Amino acid sequence: MKYLIPTVAALVLLGCGSQQKEEKTAQAPAAKETAAPEATADVKTKTEETGEAVAETVEKVKEETAATEPPTDGKTVFAQKCASCHGPDAKNAALGKSQVIAGWDAARVENALRGYIDGTYGSSMKPVMQVQAKALSDAQIKAVSEYIGSL
After folding, report:
1. How many domains, the chain?
2. Interval 48-58: pLDDT, tens
């Protein structure tokens, strides 16, 4: 008996809900048929205008992104990421602890940077250099390695 009343109530509510849906569905086609052709034209115009605005925004974002892309030439990367510790000519022992990297060939620099990234290279400066190396893209690693190798 205690389940009978809630069950009957649920069936009544379900029945009412489906009846309301049927009425709304029956009214929907009538509303579509009465829409004015001008309204459809307005919607198309607004859609075209919106599409043009979106295209303009996308172009602006592309231009801004291109302007803020991280540098990929080795000299700039070195100046921004390395010179403050290693010196402008890479002849400083960073923080008085690291090796002097001037004179290293490009392959050695690249191997060291990739070793910092994966944790297989470094000693006392490893935590600092891991952060620095992980912030570089592959293109930046290549470029800065070649640049340091040329010093």
Report:
1. 1
2. 666 676 667 66
